[in-house]
Amino acid sequence: STCVDNVVVKVVTCRTITITKRMAHLPMVAAIVATSLLFAPTASPLSVLPESAVGTIERGGIAVIPDFLAPSEVSRLRSDASSLHADGHFIVDALASYGAKDGAKDKSAFQADKDRAVFPAYIPSQRREGPFVSRTLGDADGRRRLTSVAAALRSDLAAGLDRPGLDTPDGPDNHEISFTRFGPGALLARHVDEHHEEVKGRAGWSRPTRRSISWLIYLNEPDWDPSADGGELRTYERRVPSAYSVGARNGDLQLGWLRPTPTDPTERPVFLDGRRGGVSGRCALYCDSDDGGRRVYLTKEFESDPYLFLSSDFFVQNLLIKDHELGKRFHYLEQPKSKLAEYLG
After folding, report:
1. CA torsion through residues 259, 261, 266, 271, sign
2. Which end of the chain is more exposed for a tag (fewer CB within 10 A), N or C?
3. Phi and psi at residue 273, in whole multiples of 5°?
C-alpha cells in the first residue's frame, strides 16, 4: 500500500478562534505560519513561500512567516469564525484539557465553552465532509479563498521538499482544514502529529493519505498580547539544524535519530522502510550515507509488529540494530507512551 502525503494547516486565534488546515504531516511539527499581513513578493519560483522557509523545514526547524495573509483577510476570517462559533456551529472535540488537572477528566465538571472546539472541513470518524466547506454557512467565499492559498502552499511544499504526493487536488482525504477555538485555559499537551503506518498496526494503512506538514495560521486581533491573552505555541526544535533532510525520505517517514559521537559528530535522521523488496510490512531501518546519495541500512529485515514500538528505545537499540555501537546512539522522535516504556524508564 502507499499513502499520499497531505498537509495540515491550522489557523489559530487565541482570544477568539483558530483555523486548521492539514496537508500531510511529518512526525513532528514542521512549520508554523504566523499570519497578519501578506509578505512581500520574492524572487523565489515558489508561489507563496520564500525558499528560506522550505530550507528551515527541510532541516527540522520551525519556519515562522509573519504577514502571511493581508490584514483584511485575517479580519474577514476571524469575523467568520467568531460568528459561526456564536451561532453554535462548532464541534467540541475534547482533545484539549483545561482547568485544574484533578478535574480535567471529570465529565460532570466539563464545560464546552472552555475546551477546544472546531469547525472542520472533513470529519474522519464519520467519513463525511464537515461544515467548513458548506456554501450556505457564514462567509463561504472567504473560506474558499483560504483553501486556494493552502493549495498553492501545498504545491510549493511538494516542489521544495520533493514530496510530490502533497501536490494533489483538494479532496476529503487530503486536507484537514478547520477553524479551531481554544477556550480560557484550554491546551493541547506535547504530541507528535503523525507516525509511520507500520507502527500503527492494521489501522496504519486504513486511509489513503497521511499528514506530512503542519501549519498554524493565527487570526489574532492586532492588539493581541501573549503575556495577557496566552495562546502561544511551544515547539521543540533541534539544538543544531540537521545536516540531512528530515521527516520523510521517498515516502518513508522518519522514526528516530542517531545521536552524535566524538568520532561521528553528525546527528543522523533514521527512517523506516516499510516496503522492502516491494512487500508491505517487510521493514528495515536506515539512515543516509555521508554524501546523502544512498541508504545505509541499520537492521536486517523484520516483520512489522507494533509491540516493538510500544517500549522505550531499548528494543530497537538491542534487538534490531545490528551494530551495538550504532544501537546505543538510537532514540525515537518521541518516546512511546506505554506501561512497558514506563517500566524500562
Report:
1. negative
2. C
3. -85, 110
